[in-house]
Amino acid sequence: MEHNTEKKTRYTKKQRALDIIELLKKEYPEAGCTLDYDQAWKLLVSVRLAAQCTDARVNVVVEGLFGKYPSVDALAEASPEEIEAIVRPCGLGKSKAKDISACMRQLKEKYGGNVPEDFDALLSLPGVGRKSANLIMGDVFGKPAIVTDTHCIRLVNRMGLVDGVKEPKKVEMALWKIIPPEEGSDFCHRLVYHGRAVCTARTRPDCENCCLKAVCKKVGV
């Protein structure tokens, strides 16, 4: 018993994080973004549509959207009402269409149709928050990024990487202190896979068959 207590005291959040990263790499070696895209602006649109909607549904809906409006310029010229008519199945159609329209216009007018490779510039775009900006920085530009979506927030609390922190920016800031910068983006993608398959939200997490059970605070050390 004394040995276990001593081990818990020595096992820091950073050590736990490094162990979790390695175990997730083995379990999900090919994990990546589950939104389909082949250009940066398309990912920007898709991640806005993904709010309170599944990535699978977004991938279907954007086929029609990008088929009709195949460029930043084309989508910038579309009215919010025209965009809403296509993206409505993703939910919150009016607000999402308004943001997408304004975002594409700003890309066209201010950035020559290109997505800026700067975090603060991304945050200045309509409808783009820290989660979306980090996703773009990590997946498109290969820069250090931590995407604090609902899976990430739920899992890192359960695992013991943060303690009862639910606000996305606070979770992000806490993770920056313990996750190696080059690992952040892939780590968050793997959390999505793990959160969907094992450490679920709506049903009891499958701790018994979890690849992280030996290092997870909830069930392990």
Outline the structure in words.
Mean pLDDT is 94; it is low at 1-8. With 221 residues, this protein is mainly α. α3 (40-49) runs antiparallel to α7 (93-111). The chain has 12 helices and no strands. It has 2 domains: 2-30 and 146-209, Orthogonal Bundle (Endonuclease Iii, domain 2), CATH 1.10.1670; 40-139, Endonuclease III, domain 1.
Give the helix/strand layout.
Layout: H1 2-10, H2 13-27, H3 40-49, H4 55-68, H5 72-77, H6 80-87, H7 93-111, H8 119-123, H9 130-139, H10 150-159, H11 168-176, H12 184-197
Helix pairs in contact: 3-4, 3-7, 6-7, 10-12
How many DSSP E strands?
0
Strand content: under 5%
Main sheet attributes: strand count, strand direction, barrel closure: none
CATH class of the largest domain: Mainly Alpha
Helix content: 55-70%
The geometry reads as elongated
Total domains? 2
From the alpha carbons, calculate the radius of gyration and give it in angstroms: 19 Å
Q: Which series of helices and strands comes N to C?
A: HHHHHHHHHHHH
CATH architecture of the largest domain: Orthogonal Bundle
* Fourth CATH level, the homologous superfamily of the largest domain: Hypothetical protein, domain 2
Compute the number of helices.
12
User: Which consecutive residue ranges, at least 5 long each, have pLDDT under 50?
Assistant: 1-8
Task: Give the termini distance in whole angstroms.
Answer: 12 Å
**Helix vs. strand class:** mainly alpha
How would you state the average pLDDT, rounded?
Answer: 94
